[in-house]
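Incident review: delayed structure delivery

Summary: a single-chain prediction request sat in the queue longer than the usual turnaround. Root cause was a stuck worker, restarted by the on-call engineer. No data loss occurred. The affected request and its eventual output are reproduced below so the record is complete for anyone auditing the incident later.

Affected input:
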Amino acid sequence: MSDLKTTPIAAKLRASILQQAIEGKLVPQDPNDEPASKLIERIRKERAELIKQKKAKTPKGGESIIWKDSNGSWWERRGKSEAVCIDDEIPFDIPENWTWARVCSLGTLERGAGIKRSEVVAEGEPCVRYGELYTTYRDEIVEPSSFTSETVYMAAHKLEHDELLITLTGENDIDIGKTVVNSFGRTVAYGGDLLALKNHLQNGHFLMRLFNSPYVGKQRTSASTGNTIVHLSAEKISRFLVPVPPLAEQSRIVKKIDAAMKLTDQLGILERERAML
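Output delivered after worker restart:
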């Protein structure tokens, strides 16, 4: 099990690194990279094909198409509705070859179901239940800690390698919406109170970092409801506005973040050791 506790200074440093990353300030841009708008267009075409095959549903309100005009203003069209300027929603500037997109434009969203505690067994097929995202998995599912029978597994929703899981239920509005990526190398089943981001055609580790960044964290907190038990709806998550870098840059960002996070982990260890003196 990963050490999920992060000390104050290390936590602030981690947050700063993630925020710099999603603003395009962590690695230099390469003008030869394919623009992120082309990537979003490919995802849209992939989703259209899945919808045609009845393997996905059209986003509520219709497809979201976002672009920047010659004056530098950002516009969005949903479905067949008229385009509206969304400049008041843009929180910070992003590099020229990046774009803004709604989460519903990043892939397909699929809610989980089932896999009761009584259906977890000592040996069997790998599965993930929502509480484990808070207690067991820090950023990624490297080795599943729970298993279920083949019967339950076959009937459950599946998460492929590099796809994401997002919590829809939690104990507070800070942690709600925590996201992990499947790095296990094979399919795992997932239960209720979880939302999967599938068919994203992107770097899953970058998307995980994006969803766990301070900027998206504020959107998660603002959209959550409840006190003792906090909830976050899939529909609200689908409307989150996020920055998207070119695919090639996503990989460079992940490498930089991973290297930086190793240093923050070392700092966290030193902080804990000092606190024990």
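Verification: The chain is about 35% helix and 20% strand.
Action items: add queue-age alerting; document worker restart procedure.
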